[in-house]
Specification:
The complex is a heterotrimer of chains A (219), B (241) and C (221).
Chain A: H1 14-49, H2 52-67, H3 70-83, H4 90-116, H5 119-127, H6 132-162, H7 174-185, H8 188-218
Chain B: E1 2-11, E2 14-24, E3 29-34, H1 40-47, E4 55-60, E5 63-64, H2 72-75, E6 79-82, H3 94-104, H4 110-123, H5 139-151, E7 157-161, H6 169-185, E8 188-192, H7 196-202, E9 205-210, E10 213-218, H8 220-225, H9 230-239
Parallel strand pairs in B: 3-8, 3-9, 6-7, 7-8
Antiparallel strand pairs in B: 1-2, 1-4, 4-5, 9-10
Helix pairs in contact in B: 3-4, 3-5, 4-5, 5-6
Chain C: H1 8-12, H2 14-47, H3 51-66, H4 69-77, H5 89-114, H6 118-126, H7 131-161, H8 173-184, H9 187-217
Helix pairs in contact in C: 2-3, 2-5, 2-7, 2-8, 3-5, 4-5, 5-7, 6-7, 7-9, 8-9
The chains are: A mainly alpha (219), B alpha/beta (241), C mainly alpha (221).
């Protein structure tokens, strides 16, 4: 056997390893999307309703989250908590940063959604006797959220792709597991193509669905 | 009854209502006519506290609308309002549009709310459209939905803000018919309108708004058929060409 | 907190950080220029009636938009090795960015083009304009206004994504930061400065593009 003693080719035994990667990717993406959406909803609402001062302050913080590369944020945060003596599991670190990053984008989406609800719709609700919070729950939320569903989906799909970066801090998501496999098997092409297909299969149907919803809403 | 006493209203530095006095008795139909920007719609928004006032008082059934302690959300249950742009809730069916407020504001059970909604929807002629979405209907149908939606709250007074102005001509009739029906039911109504002939036909009282004040007020035979003031005459000649 | 901050070493190495930032900028700018050029062709291909043209274009666009940027970089850097193509870190990152930018910009251009109402064409035609005039004076200026903002966003995205060069040993800002901090073990300080630099670069780009847009669009649309 010519020099292949160091490298072992891809085999079916590796499928368990890859599957772990896949599941970890899905897992961290889902958590970040859920937390990012909930926080983004709250922050988006606050920004739509609050006075100029709160708005600018929040806006500034969110701006920073969107203007520094995700990878830098991950490295910075994990280094920082290591330095102050409270190191966290890569999953936890990754979840925190990825969720905050997602929230920053989601809050813009939801803020736009709230602001897009016409005042006249809200007035109609109030004229029927609805209290402020009733108009929020029954008029602004349902109408505003429906309007921004495609944008929300866009951000959610980006999260799935960005989850690959959490590999940098040691989280064994799909790309990281594939990296390890590549260095062991020296078969980068096959593995990468497989990985690419996975991301594509998850993302493409969802993006088609988003376009379908967008088209329906335009009529 | 509704009593409007010396009401002044400004938007910033622009004074839109410069001292309005108007009484509306139970069962009366009052039409408010006048040019754009004369403050007619603003008055309606002041009556149901969507807008505030800078001076004067508005009293609805002995409740001072703009007093500190007044529960305005509760007050608005007595006052039904229908807008020029109907503002139907696009994400709800016709039935849901009409039954939502009775359910969450009047705190009726879903069954009771739906029953009331159906009754009013039938009353305005939308009995076959319960599960339709408003955006699929014509303007006239959506406006009738808006009327039914307001009626479902069992208001004592109905406020109509130019409810036919945004409609295609052939749809105006069905909405006016609905208004006539409400008048026959004995509803107390304040209608801001451009439909002079309609105002003349249904009203007990017509108020002509001009530059923020009521220039002339009285029964339609007088204000519309036989106006006394110059401004009224000028307005009517422009509108009734 | 037991960590002691030592900033001096960072400031000493500032010139190198700045040269890293410069690399970030020029790889981003280059990726946009090349990406735009390709996107124009892809957009035309995608809108054409010939399946032979529109299918490959769609394939490019959908792969670019539905797979992670990091994946693209790994493909360029590691994957092509299987074909005997060994790209430098810079070229690998550049190719990946170009690939993704071309994909997203194609959709931007196509959307911008198709969002112009057909009535604009009829109106200009009835005024007697020929096709070239219609495109030059009516269609393209309107298109430009619609794609300007998405294009600035794509540029900012390129700048931020170039940071992935750190993973393939590239010498842009993140890569330089990594190299310098591994020599001095002042990880936190170096990466904090890098974060601030990215923030400033992004703010600067957004500020100047909005200035330019105000000049160009003077309040219309």
């Amino acid at each position: 056997m010519m020099g292949s003693s160091f490298f072992t080719p891809l085999s079916w035994n590796d499928s368990g390893f890859i599957l772990t990667g896949v599941l970890n990717t899905v897992y961290i993406s889902l958590v970040a999307i859920i937390i990012g959406t909930l926080l983004g909803l709250a922050v988006g609402f606050i920004r739509a309703e609050a006075n100029k001062f709160t708005n600018t302050l929040l806006g500034g913080v969110l701006d920073i989250l969107r203007s520094v590369p995700l990878i830098i944020q991950l490295i910075l945060f994990s280094t920082y908590i290591g330095a102050i003596g409270y190191p966290l599991d890569p999953f936890v670190t990754g979840t925190i940063i990825l969720s905050l990053y997602t929230m920053a984008f989601m809050s813009e989406v939801f803020r736009g959604g709230f602001e897009s609800v016409q005042q006249s719709m809200i007035t109609a609700g109030r004229s029927l006797g609805m209290s402020y919070w009733q108009t929020v729950a029954h008029v602004r939320l349902p109408i505003g959220l429906r309007a921004v569903f495609p944008s929300w989906l866009g951000v959610a799909l980006s999260v799935i792709k960005d989850s690959a970066l959490v590999s940098v801090i040691g989280y064994m998501e799909l790309l990281r597991t594939s990296e390890q496999l590549i260095s062991r098997t020296q078969q980068p092409l096959e593995i990468l193509i497989g990985v690419g297909i996975f991301y594509f299969i998850v993302s493409y149907p969802l993006s088609l669905y988003g376009k379908y919803v967008e088209r329906k809403m335009a009529t | 009854m509704i009593q409007i006493q010396n009401v002044h209203k400004s938007f910033g530095s622009l004074e839109v209502l410069k001292g309005i006095d108007l009484d509306v008795q139970k069962g009366e139909v009052v039409s408010v006519i006048g040019g754009s920007g004369s403050g007619k719609s603003t008055l309606l928004y002041c009556i149901n506290a969507i807008e505030d006032i800078q001076q004067g008082r508005i009293v609805v059934d002995e409740i001072d609308v703009h007093a500190k302690g007044t529960n305005q959300d509760k007050l608005r249950q007595k006052l039904g309002m229908v807008f020029q742009q109907w503002n139907s809730f696009p994400h709800l069916t016709v039935l849901e549009n009409a039954s939502l407020a009775p359910r969450i504001v009047s705190k009726l059970s879903r069954k009771e709310a739906v029953e009331i909604a159906k009754k009013e929807l039938n009353h305005v002629g939308l009995g076959d459209k319960f599960d339709e979405y408003p955006t699929r209907m014509s303007g006239g149908q959506q406006q009738r939905l808006a009327i039914a939606r307001a009626l479902a709250m069992k208001p004592d007074y109905m406020l109509f803000d130019e409810v036919t102005s945004a409609l295609d001509p052939e749809l105006v009739g069905e909405v006016l018919d609905t208004l006539r029906m409400l008048r026959d039911d004995g509803m107390t109504m304040i209608c801001v309108t451009h439909e002079i002939a309609f105002a003349r036909e249904v009203s007990n009282k017509v108020a002509f708004f001009h530059q923020g004040v009521i220039e002339e007020m009285g029964p339609p035979e007088q204000v519309i058929a036989n106006p006394q003031k110059e401004a009224t005459k000028k307005f009517l000649s422009k509108v009734l060409h | 907190m037991e960590y002691e901050f030592h900033w001096n070493i960072v400031f000493q190495k500032m010139p190198q950080l700045l040269s890293g930032a410069f690399v970030t900028l020029h790889v981003s700018v280059l990726s946009m220029l090349i990406g735009i050029a390709i996107a124009v062709l892809l957009a035309i291909a995608k809108m054409s009636d010939s399946k032979m043209l529109s299918l490959p274009a769609t394939l490019w666009v959908e792969i670019a938009r539905n797979t992670p940027a990091l994946f693209q970089i790994y493909m360029a850097y590691f994957g092509l090795g299987a074909f005997g193509i060994h790209l430098s870190p810079y070229t690998a990152v550049l190719s990946a960015l170009v690939f993704v930018n071309a994909g997203y910009l194609t959709e931007t251009f196509r959307g911008g083009f198709q969002s112009i109402p057909k009535t604009q064409y009829s109106a200009s035609k009835s005024l007697g304009m020929n096709s070239i005039q219609i495109y030059r004076y009516i269609i393209l200026p309107q298109m430009f206004r619609r794609i300007y903002h998405p294009m600035t966003n794509q540029f900012v995205w390129s700048i931020l994504m170039s940071s992935l060069g750190i993973l393939v040993g590239m010498n842009e800002l993140s890569g330089e930061t990594q190299r310098l901090q591994s020599l001095s073990f002042r990880t936190l300080e170096f990466f904090m400065v890098a974060a601030v630099m990215y923030y400033l670069i992004t703010k600067f780009v957004l500020f100047s593009t909005s200035l330019v847009s105000r000049k160009l669009f003077k309040g219309d649309i």
